[in-house]
Amino acid sequence: MSASTPANIANASSVSRDFLNLRKDFPILSTVMNGYPLVYLDNAATTQKPRVVIDALTNYYTTTNANIHRGVHQLSQNATEQYEAVRETVRAFINARQVSEIIFVRGATEGINLVAQSLGRIRLTPGDEVVITAMEHHSNIVPWQMVCAQHGARLRVAPMNDAGELLWDEYESLLNEKTKITAFTQISNALGTINPVERMVEAARKVGAITLVDGAQSAPHTSVDVQKMGCDFFVFSGHKIYAPTGIGVLYGRRELLEEMPPYQGGGDMISYVTFEKTAYNELPYKFEAGTPNIAGTIGLGAALNYVTAIGLDRIAAHESELLAYGTSRLQDIDGLTIIGTAAQKAGVLSFILKGVHPHDIGTIMDERGIAIRTGHHCAQPVMDRYEIPATARASLGLYNTKEEIDALAEGIRKVFEVFT
User: Fold this and answer.
1) At the topology level of CATH, where does 54-309 sit?
2) What is the pLDDT of residues 156-171, one digit of tens each?
3) DSSP state, 160?
4) pLDDT above 80 for 14
5) Residues sharing a CB contact under 8 Å with residue 4, sequence separation 6 or more, in sequence order
6) Contacts of 100 by beta carbon, 8 Å cutoff, 6+ apart
7) Pairing mode, strands 210-214 and 370-371
């Protein structure tokens, strides 16, 4: 039986059946690992790539490879046209007002660092406060710690309950006239919690705070509308949305981007340079110093077109069905505790097994061809909150199936056999 022909196909819902056909778009899913069909459940870390994305990279390197913006020859013009077309694709994907608000970065991490360092220079003074939440990824903690230390500001953290849900009253009580920036994840990578970001943004705006939403885990799984959300900044990474690594997006409200100084200096972010003075380029190029990841950007465009053609709402429905099924299967296993049980939750199943270290779980799973993530998931404060060192995490993507969740459950039972 191949990985693309699940045994339970006859019992699959119509939504699941529709998504079975998409598995053939991902060449790696036909891989056999240790004699088992690959079961890839590490999508929160990175997603696999469909053939259209791989083909887009190949086509660029075989027919178009050239640097952009600076060449008059045809290859450069073709590369520039393809690269800039993706900016419009991204704008439409998140419903930004204009393409000048779309900045290409290496990923969500660089996008957050860019905002922290650039905005911090002009908005943070001693005694000011930055508010984040207890469920943040390190990428949305460390940059704010750094910039607070640089400017004498204070980092405040809104707590969460045992289910992994934001304590709203505590969050709201942290917001005051000292709050200059609020930064929070839309979906927790370690818990799957879906935060009420529109409400969070609205509360922050009432005290005049600037808002940044980390969409690394939300953009691949749900429709994003930054205008409806009302946020000032939004970041996401290409490699988590079926695009190549090393490419991501920072959306910023134009008025703020115009005000912010450049994050890096070099080529393409200038209009002219002398030894006495440099004039900076217009948006968005002011924040795009140096030769960018041209191929990765083109691959990102292909990935966004791919998921848009499928439909983000359909993807969300499919993954919601898988999450419900997976939660039910795992809850039936004695000795297993799911970490993160928010009422509003995306496709993340973090768990611990009584008497078994998560790394041992991952090792035995790997022997059975099952790829999950083990560790603190770059969210050590989350682990500290639950007084555990790590979890095992299965995270879902559009190509996953109920049969793969069955394989996960059977793998967990195998772990217990080994350690009991």
Assistant:
1) Aspartate Aminotransferase; domain 2 (3.40.640)
2) 999 999 999 999 999 9
3) B
4) no
5) 20, 23, 24, 29, 30
6) 254, 257, 282, 283, 284
7) unpaired
Indicate which residues carry an active-site annotation.
378
Alpha helices of 210-311 — where are they, by DSSP H?
A: 226-229, 254-259, 294-310
pLDDT tens-digit readout, 228-275: 999 999 999 999 999 999 999 999 999 999 999 999 888 888 788 889
Domain boundaries defined on the chain = 7-30+311-419, 54-309
Q: How many residues does the chain have?
A: 420
Q: Is 145 helix (H, G, I), strand (E, B) or coil?
A: helix
d(CA 391, CA 39): 19
pTM of the model: 0.94
Q: How would DSSP label each residue in 14-48?
A: HHHHHHHGGGGG-GGGG-EETTEE-EE-BTTT---
13 confidence band (pLDDT: 50, 70, 90): low
Q: What is the DSSP letter of 60?
A: I
CATH class of this structure's domain 7-30+311-419: alpha beta
What are the CA-CA distances from residue 132 to residues 155, 182, 213, 236 (Å)?
8, 6, 10, 17
CB < 8 Å & 24+ apart, contacts of 353-361: 353/392, 353/412, 353/415, 353/416, 355/419, 355/420, 356/415, 356/416, 356/419, 357/389, 357/390, 358/389, 358/390, 358/391, 358/392, 359/390, 360/415, 360/419, 361/392, 361/412, 361/415
